[in-house]
Amino acid sequence: MRKTIIGLILLLVSAASNGFAAPSWTYQVEGVGAIVSADQAAARQQAVRVALREALQEAVLSVLGTDAVVANIHVLNERLYAEPWPYIASYRVLWEYPDAPGKVYRVRLAAEVASTKVRQALAVLDPSVAAVDPGRLPEDDAGRLAILITERHLGQATSTWWAERGVVTRTLRSQLTERGVRIGELEPGLHWDGTEGAALKAAREAEVAILLVGHAGVQQIYNALSGSTVHATLQLRVLDTPTGGVLAQERGEANVNGTQSGQAGALALEQAARTVVPRLMAFLSAAVQPTPPDSAATP
């Protein structure tokens, strides 16, 4: 009996060391919880839950793709996102702090999502998901364009990569997709340091032809006449992924009344992103969309 138990332990250790342990994807995500009646513990718990939901949403997006997520958003909200805990293998708190002036508790986590469990749950929506290799994206997820933007929000000393959940990235994806631009999915759990070199490396690995890379941030401006205003700026470069050449550069700006709500910064970033989309389309419509065959060359 003892030999059997020892043999089983050795078998499990061997399996784990050879890659048979349950695969997972790691995401760096942030969450915010409201501080009500000075209850910071409850606010922290809410913030962690929000962050874990963000990680789960990232995993689902990488497996299904944008179109399938949009088509099944109500089912996903009810069956997966409402209770993220079963799909979280582990998480680690990177930083946390109570924002007393804003009456919110903020956390940033490194969360591991159990990809096998996610694929099993999604297989109910799309049976082909069950066959997806958890270590890589489906081949047809390779797109023509990728987006990597860092954001610096109010109260932040440095910029942060907000992955697919950043305000600017979400706005650009939505606006460009509506205009027929095909967006590629980057590797799940990608860690980016904010540099163009690392962004190009990630885009090349994802086999996308065009890369939108840039930085966005907000600052609060006080004026004796107009009061408080939140000013957002977006610096964006369009790069040819294979060569790294700069194809275009754009700058977007927007102002939002700072007294509206705690969402003034997000609204300003969204508006700044929207301003660059029409100017980008003049280039992207030719660079991204398939070129029709030359009728003169057709026999």
Q: What's a quick, concise take on this entry?
A:
The chain has 299 residues and is an alpha+beta fold. 37% of the residues lie in helices and 28% in strands.
Explained architecture:
This protein has 299 residues and is α+β, with helices and mostly antiparallel strands. Helices cover 37% and strands 28% of the residues. It is built from eight helices and eight strands. It has helices spanning 2-17, 40-64, 66-71, 73-81, 115-122, 167-178, 196-205, 264-287, and strands at residues 24-34, 88-99, 104-114, 145-152, 160-161, 210-223, 227-240, 246-257. Strands 5-4-6-7-8 form a five-stranded mixed sheet, sandwiched between helices. The longest helix has 25 residues, at 40-64. The protein is globular, with a radius of gyration of 22 Å. It starts with a helix and ends in a 12-residue tail after the last helix. Mean pLDDT is 76; it is low at 1-22, 130-142 and 290-299.
